[in-house]
Write a structure and sequence with these properties.
The chain is of the alpha/beta class and 355 residues long. The chain folds into 2 domains: 170 residues, D-Maltodextrin-Binding Protein, domain 2; 126 residues, Periplasmic binding protein-like II (D-Maltodextrin-Binding Protein, domain 2), CATH 3.40.190. It has 13 helices and 10 strands. Strands 1, 2, 3, 4, 5, 6, 7, 8, 9 and 10 form a 10-stranded mixed β-sheet that branches. β1, α2 and β2 form a beta-alpha-beta unit. The longest helix has 32 residues. It starts with a helix and ends with a helix. About 6% of the residues have low confidence.
């Protein structure tokens, strides 16, 4: 390639980069320009198909207008977190509805959040909320094995199912086992729990061993679910909401809870937090109270995602599936104080994946 060709190629590349930057900036400016000045601005990482309906119910019940900003699968929580940190000195968001808790822990440390202990704070167990009220959890998902039925045929109960999974994982070939990349989302929480519970050295050895034996990494939990549902993999680590998507589609899959070596499960809540510096504090508090209420926990429990209520609810209004999940969740690992594991595990993961 001659010098002129290289020059033209470089110019074209920079032109494309500039165009992409202009388009992204235009989208952000357009979104901001269309926000009603009196509206409560909510950044939301929970699936839009479920959260948008609930935010509309809040509008209808209170008369408070809501403008929601959603993001994309896999990195959505991380993307909104970075945006909130970038906007710290000039906040545009009033309330952050996240789909896990590591992000709000980071935002608390960065000084982005405003503490609030409202009327619903007391009904949520301590393991799922910040002791000072900087964030509150509600409506959880559980980390589970999604299993192709052929892999556990003949199992009489959960004990048999767990043993069959253990046997399958003991082999040298894990090319039929899938997991989401742990840099993001609930898989990152899963890794952080393992880091704290069993120690960094054991987690690192486990992770490297899985990769060495050919475990399949995917961009997100939904892709893990798809591989098992299609029979391309026999086992996958995912969340209950993704499992139920496959089940409701009639796929030949079973759910088996992922258990730590002491028998505890990992339940990961939605979280809600108020952004420090909001000019709509009273409205923000009303939304927090609304989301952590029994009414909304029941609504999410009875949605297709089968979210697990964390506070007291009318059990007669729950399906048998959610009752079982709720029973398992009584023996869950506490997530409110993951301590140094949060940043230490993330730093290691970024080093491993070159991020």
């Amino acid at each position: 390639m001659n010098g002129n060709s290289r020059h033209r190629g470089s110019a074209q590349t920079w032109g494309l980069v500039l165009l992409a930057a202009v388009v992204i900036a235009g989208v952000v400016i357009y979104w901001r320009s269309t926000v009603r000045p009196d509206a409560l601005v909510v950044y939301c990482a929970h699936d839009r198909v479920f959260s948008e309906r609930i935010l509309q119910q809040f509008e209808d019940a209170t008369g408070i207008a809501v403008e929601a900003r959603f993001d994309t699968e896999a990195t959505k929580s991380l993307g909104l977190t970075e945006l909130l940190i970038a906007e710290k000195d000039n906040p545009r968001c009033d309330v952050f509805w996240n789909n896990e808790q590591l992000a709000v822990m980071q935002l608390k440390a960065e000084g982005v959040l405003e503490p609030y202990q409202g009327e619903g704070f007391g009904r949520i167990p301590n393991g799922y909320k910040d002791a000072e009220g900087y964030w509150t959890g509600f409506a959880a998902r559980m980390r589970v094995w999604i299993v192709h039925q052929s892999a556990i045929s003949g199992a009489a109960d959960e004990t048999d199912e767990q043993q069959k999974i253990t046997d399958a994982l003991a082999g040298n070939d894990l090319s039929k086992v899938a997991i989401a990349k742990p840099l993001y989302g609930t898989t990152r929480t899963h890794y952080t729990v393992l880091w704290q519970h069993q120690g960094a050295a054991k987690l690192k050895a486990w992770h490297d061993n899985w990769r060495k034996r050919g475990a399949i990494e995917q961009g997100g939990n939904a892709q893990v679910k798809d591989l098992v549902a299609a029979g391309a993999c026999l086992l996958g680590l995912t969340d209950t909401d993704d499992f139920y998507v496959a089940k409701d589609e009639g796929k030949p899959v079973r759910l088996v809870p992922f258990r730590l070596d002491d028998g505890r499960v990992i339940c990961i809540p939605n979280t809600v937090a108020i952004i420090k510096g909001t000019k709509r504090l009273d409205k923000a508090k009303k939304l927090v109270d609304f989301l952590v209420s029994e009414k909304i926990e029941l609504a999410l429990a009875n949605s297709p995602s089968r979210q697990i209520p964390l506070g007291p609810v009318d059990e007669s209004k729950l399906s048998d599936e959610v009752k079982q999940l709720r029973a398992w969740s009584k023996n869950a690992y506490p997530l409110s104080d993951l301590g140094d594991a949060v940043n230490a595990c993330l730093a290691w993961l970024r080093e491993r994946y070159g991020k």
